[in-house]
């Protein structure tokens, strides 16, 4: 064997044997007698017995290979079983999915032909092998918990986009999504499945039965009289809807739950190789366990946990003989999982820290030393894939022991530098998805997860109003409630401690990947990770419309929190060594990262528009402020590309509107690596009944972005390009004069921080909002239970039937609440805990500081990606809406100051000319509108510097024609609400008896007018004689339009309602009608606000525009009353009385009191000035 890799070097001359005792003491080479004893102890026979010394063949290294061949060829009683396996089965011995003819619909199939993703309404696919006799089993690893039917079918079954496995006479299926079994008809069966579960499908063709198991637990016999006999053979098969994904294990890997006696996997295990591998592993264990005392000339027992290869040629040559046979076997996935992974896990079973088990490091050194490079690569790849699969599909148990076990082994492997770097470069982000290692799945079935034992007492808040909001009145908690709550909280703390163990191990993995000190044999791990992490972000940012290729958001949430913890660990570690640097509490991303081309932002939008446009228009500012020169050849290329920009964007827009099937057929396939099989490999086969099998190469990521600022691709960057050296600032190249000349931290950590912000924007925020649904369910069931208990207390004793029904309802609600409260405890610990809230708050402060630093650079602020502003707004929204009432934002350090700084950003940038994107401008406007609805945040707006407040009000009073006027008007209305005539209500009087859909909406908050901002508005209208008429003319124009549209709409609705087909009133039409009405009311309130704060605009005849404005107002206001009470069949009343859904807000009161308020103020102020 040739030696490869790093390890202990041995000179060839030391391999010769010697019989001289004195020489053996010097060189460590053993004599022939001792060698013979040693080799016989290592290489024992199959029965483990050694023949007597007199009858043993003398062993040397010259005849060891012959002896080893004989040992490995010994039969162990399992050899004849291979001949029986094929009976009762037809088809290839290697069982995979039939991607040539055995499918229907659109499907994406993995490279290994074992994983499949649905890409159409209801695609179906079967395996290549069928069975007609005997007992058979296969496993399905559930990657997503949606609509799927899994089971068996015959060759005669014909499926389509509506009917799949179980919908035809000779097909049988289990559906864990709807908890049913299918064979033409359907009945209830089994339990609900969740992502991460394993379904075992069993068929007994001797008895004619089909059974299913979920995570090794039998669900009972599903079908007991299936058709069998001549011509009947059953294929494993599945039908699955769009985006759903699974992976099959027909026996190519060890079955996770092979406990069903008498059943065989469809694919035979490699029995001969398995026997050899186990024998060789036994020999390897003997080498570790038995040592040679050269000085004493005897064999000794050694402590295996501390075994090291210490330059002993005898041991090394022995190991070389073992690995000569062992290495090729370790390239096979079945053997890696069954033999190697099991052995490595057994080493860690003794407990203690991973560092206490150096044997794994020594074994990895041996592998690199004695195996060929391609063998070690394949072995490590299969080992990590098996670990990932085991982690992802392990059931949740109370102590999370299985997950902890697999994570510990992952850490032990990644601690080996050479293995870590190989896996980072070629496996972790390319072949499998290491992000899965940072996910802690939420148990759907709390009983199986052991949460009943962990949290024996359940509790839920009981103080809710009829609207579902938590009551502000603090009711005295009963002694029983207090005991339940405290017991529940103790249970939550026990759960939290166990989950924190898993999270700590996940952070350890990231610390290993972010290590920048391991420069042995090439660049450090951190810089490999950076490049892979950037590609990962690019893949998720560039495919946001294609859900099958995105990292699931629940994975992203966990990955984000672990990455923040690891980043802050290294950031503060650097601060400890470099006192002048910033701590992680002061972290921000410097603005030069956005324009110096060192960090790739793909095709993400900048605040100032397209990067190509910014490079052309701001090239002089870049040169003057940041000393950054754009290469003229690059500028020319940008200009040439811009010629085709419109055509390209039109083409891409057209493609984005095509059905996903057309996309897949017409263009190159993106990688559906996330929802695919637990092998998590690249799925590059696209199956379609229209186009049989397209295996197009994946489109290179670099082509997704046509124009790039950077000069170096991600792959070309070196450590020096990132960190800088000898005057080269690396990522910080091009520091603007406004940026302080102070070290921040290591440049590589800045790029990780930038990636974290991008991750939050991609999918984390949406997932945080989604998981709030469980808390809402608890509130609804708690209200229902409370209502039921009140009815029970009021139920007359004579109505026994009603009383018993109420008791049944009470029991159902209580059981559901017990289940949900335990599940909510898990979600609160893993997603909404105080530590997770502090992570999101830290991210908010990072974004605020980054925006503030970018803002100071003037025109260069346009280079900042839009997602920084989005994350600042969304993270604040998450803290306010998603983490309470578990944790309160008010308790966070520096909360008031953060609120004011965010208010200043919103107030300044909603009308910033440097921001050109309409979507981000609308988002800023909406965030500011929401900000002024709540007293706490409105006070923050009032605490920003006076100059900024006045500037904000001036921007709000700019003519409406230049921007989204509806949102602007809404902001002004909120500042006035509570001061106008009849305008102190939270909800319209005629709606008080109805329940709001969402009582937490900004529009349903109590009035909180701002007299300070009203005063600024009055001063501006007083002082600027041009501002007032332009503003009021735009308000009157919009009011005229909105009310005219409203009247036209109610006429159409009335006509439609008078027809026989009343149900055909379009819901969108109703929504537009209600919106026009609400706009009319809000515009009237702004007019009332203006008349009240600055009446002289209408009444001061010294102003040239006063008479014209008053005339317009006098013409407009009288038109409202006749329109609302028109004699033409009293149109308004008739539409209101229809009580159409969507027109609840349309009523006389809101619009008439607004008109009255304007008229009253005009009359009062006319008398004063008269």
UniProtKB/TrEMBL annotation:
EC number: 2.3.2.27
Record's catalysed reaction(s): S-ubiquitinyl-[E2 ubiquitin-conjugating enzyme]-L-cysteine + [acceptor protein]-L-lysine = [E2 ubiquitin-conjugating enzyme]-L-cysteine + N(6)-ubiquitinyl-[acceptor protein]-L-lysine
Any Pfam family the entry gives: SPRY
PANTHER family: E3 UBIQUITIN-PROTEIN LIGASE RNF123, RING FINGER AND SRY DOMAIN-CONTAINING
Top EC category: transferase
Domain B30.2/SPRY: 75-255
SUPFAM superfamilies (alphabetical): Concanavalin A-like lectins/glucanases
BP GO annotations: proteolysis involved in protein catabolic process
Organism field: Leptosomus discolor
Gene Ontology CC: cytoplasm
InterPro entries linked to this entry: B30.2/SPRY, B30.2/SPRY_sf, ConA-like_dom_sf, RNF123/RKP/RSPRY1, SPRY_dom, SPRY_RNF123, TPR_RNF123/RKP
Keyword Transferase belongs to the record: yes
Signal peptide per UniProt: none
Protein name: RING-type E3 ubiquitin transferase
């Amino acid at each position: 064997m040739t030696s490869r890799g790093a390890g202990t070097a041995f000179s060839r001359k030391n391999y010769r044997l010697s019989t001289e005792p004195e020489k053996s003491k010097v060189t460590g080479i053993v004599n022939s007698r001792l060698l013979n004893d040693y080799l016989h102890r290592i290489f024992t026979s199959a029965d483990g017995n050694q023949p007597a010394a007199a009858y043993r063949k003398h062993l040397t290294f010259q005849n060891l290979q012959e002896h080893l061949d004989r040992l490995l060829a010994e039969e162990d009683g399992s050899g004849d079983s291979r001949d029986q396996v094929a009976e009762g089965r037809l088809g290839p011995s290697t069982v995979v999915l039939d991607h040539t003819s055995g499918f229907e619909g659109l499907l994406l199939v993995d490279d290994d032909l074992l994983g499949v993703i649905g890409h159409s309404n209801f695609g179906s696919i079967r395996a290549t092998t069928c069975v007609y006799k005997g007992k058979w089993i296969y496993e399905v690893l559930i990657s997503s918990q949606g609509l799927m039917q899994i089971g068996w079918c015959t060759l005669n079954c014909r499926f389509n986009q509506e009917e799949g496995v179980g919908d035809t006479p000779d097909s049988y299926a289990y559906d864990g999504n709807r908890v049913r079994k299918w064979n033409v008809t359907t009945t209830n069966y089994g339990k609900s499945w969740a992502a991460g579960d394993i379904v075992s499908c069993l068929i007994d063709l001797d008895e004619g039965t089909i059974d299913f198991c979920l995570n090794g637990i039998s669900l009972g016999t599903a079908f007991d009289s299936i058709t069998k006999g001549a011509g009947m053979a059953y294929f494993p098969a599945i039908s699955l809807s769009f985006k759903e994904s699974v992976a099959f294990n027909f026996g190519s890997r060890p079955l996770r739950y092979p406990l069903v006696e008498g059943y065989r996997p469809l694919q035979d295990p490699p029995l001969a190789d398995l026997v050899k591998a186990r024998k060789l592993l036994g020999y390897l264990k003997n080498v570790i366990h038995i040592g040679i005392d050269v000085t004493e000339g005897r064999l000794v027992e050694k402590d295996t946990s501390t075994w090291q290869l210490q330059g002993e040629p005898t041991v090394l040559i022995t190991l070389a003989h073992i690995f000569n046979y062992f290495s090729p076997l370790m390239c096979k996935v079945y053997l890696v999982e069954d033999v190697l992974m099991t052995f490595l896990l057994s080493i860690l079973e003794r407990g203690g820290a991973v560092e206490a088990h150096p044997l794994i490091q020594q074994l990895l050194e041996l592998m690199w030393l004695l195996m060929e490079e391609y063998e070690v690569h394949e072995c490590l790849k299969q080992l990590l894939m098996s670990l990932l699969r085991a982690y992802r599909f392990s059931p949740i148990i109370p102590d999370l022991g299985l997950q902890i076990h697999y994570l510990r082994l992952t850490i032990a492997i990644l601690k080996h530098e050479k293995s870590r770097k190989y896996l980072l470069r070629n496996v972790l982000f390319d072949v499998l998805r290491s992000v899965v290692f940072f996910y802690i799945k939420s148990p759907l079935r709390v009983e199986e997860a052991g949460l009943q034992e962990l949290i024996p007492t359940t509790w839920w808040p009981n103080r809710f109003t009829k609207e579902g909001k938590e009551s502000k009145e603090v009711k005295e908690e009963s002694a029983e409630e207090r005991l339940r709550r405290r017991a529940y909280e103790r249970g939550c703390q026990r759960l939290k401690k166990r989950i924190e163990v898993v999270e700590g191990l996940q952070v350890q993995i990231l610390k290993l990947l972010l290590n920048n000190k391991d420069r042995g044999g090439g660049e450090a791990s951190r810089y490999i990770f950076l490049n892979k992490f950037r590609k990962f972000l690019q893949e998720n940012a560039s495919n946001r419309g294609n859900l099958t290729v995105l990292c699931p958001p629940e994975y992203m949430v966990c990955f984000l929190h672990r990455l923040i913890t690891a980043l802050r660990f290294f950031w503060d570690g650097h601060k400890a060594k470099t006192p002048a640097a910033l701590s992680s509490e002061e972290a921000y991303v410097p603005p030069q990262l956005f324009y110096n081309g060192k960090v790739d932002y793909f095709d993400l939008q900048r605040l100032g528009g397209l990067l190509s446009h910014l490079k052309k228009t701001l090239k002089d500012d870049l040169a003057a402020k940041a000393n950054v020169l754009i290469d003229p050849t690059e500028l020319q290329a940008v200009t040439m590309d811009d010629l085709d920009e419109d055509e390209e964007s039109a083409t891409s827009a057209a493609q984005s509107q095509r059905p996903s099937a057309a996309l897949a057929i017409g263009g190159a396939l993106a990688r559906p690596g996330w929802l695919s099989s637990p092998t998590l490999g690249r799925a590059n086969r696209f199956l379609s009944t229209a186009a049989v099998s397209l295996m197009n190469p994946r489109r290179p990521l670099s082509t997704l972005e046509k124009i790039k600022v950077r000069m170096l691709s991600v792959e070309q960057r070196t450590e020096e390009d990132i960190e800088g050296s000898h005057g080269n600032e690396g990522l910080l190249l091009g520091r603007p004069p406004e940026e302080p000349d102070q070290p921040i931290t290591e440049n590589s950590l800045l790029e990780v921080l930038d990636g974290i912000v991008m991750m939050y924007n991609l999918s984390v925020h949406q997932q945080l909002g989604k998981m709030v649904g469980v808390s809402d369910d608890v509130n609804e069931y708690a209200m229902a239970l409370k209502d039921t208990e009140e009815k029970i207390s009021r139920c007359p004793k004579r109505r026994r039937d009603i009383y018993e029904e109420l008791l049944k309802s009470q029991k159902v609600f209580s059981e559901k609440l017990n289940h949900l409260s335990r599940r909510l405890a898990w979600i609160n610990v893993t997603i909404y805990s105080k530590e997770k809230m502090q992570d999101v708050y830290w991210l908010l402060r990072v974004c605020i500081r980054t925006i503030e630093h970018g803002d100071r650079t003037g025109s260069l602020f346009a280079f900042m990606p839009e997602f920084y502003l989005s994350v600042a707004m969304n993270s604040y929204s998450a803290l306010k809406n998603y983490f309470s009432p578990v944790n309160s934002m008010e308790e966070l350090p520096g909360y008031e100051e953060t609120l004011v700084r965010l208010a200043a950003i919103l107030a300044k940038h909603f009308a910033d000319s440097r921001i050109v994107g309409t979507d981000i401008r609308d988002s800023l406007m909406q965030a500011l509108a929401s900000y002024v609805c709540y007293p706490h945040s409105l006070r923050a707006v009032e605490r920003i510097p006076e100059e900024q407040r006045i500037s904000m009000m001036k921007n709000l009073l700019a003519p409406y024609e230049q921007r989204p006027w509806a949102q602007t008007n809404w902001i002004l209305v909120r500042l006035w609400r509570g001061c106008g005539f009849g305008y102190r209500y939270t909800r319209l009087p005629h709606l008080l008896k109805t329940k709001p859909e969402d009582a937490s909406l900004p529009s349903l908050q109590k009035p909180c007018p701002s007299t300070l901002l009203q005063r600024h508005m009055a001063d501006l209208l007083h002082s600027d004689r041009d501002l007032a008429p332009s503003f009021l003319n735009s308000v009157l124009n919009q009011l005229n339009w909105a009310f005219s549209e409203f009247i036209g709409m109610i006429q159409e609705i009335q006509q439609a309602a008078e027809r026989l087909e009343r149900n055909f009133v379009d819901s969108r039409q109703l929504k537009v009608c209600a919106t026009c009405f609400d706009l009319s009311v809000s515009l009237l309130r702004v007019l009332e606000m203006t008349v009240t704060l600055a009446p002289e605009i209408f009444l001061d005849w010294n102003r040239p525009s006063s008479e014209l404005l008053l005339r317009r107002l006098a013409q407009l206001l009288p038109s409202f009353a006749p329109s609302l009470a028109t004699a033409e069949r009293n149109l308004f009343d008739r539409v209101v009385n229809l009580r159409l859904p969507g027109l609840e807000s349309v009523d006389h009161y809101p619009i008439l009191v607004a008109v009255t308020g304007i008229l009253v103020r005009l009359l009062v102020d006319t008398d004063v000035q008269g």
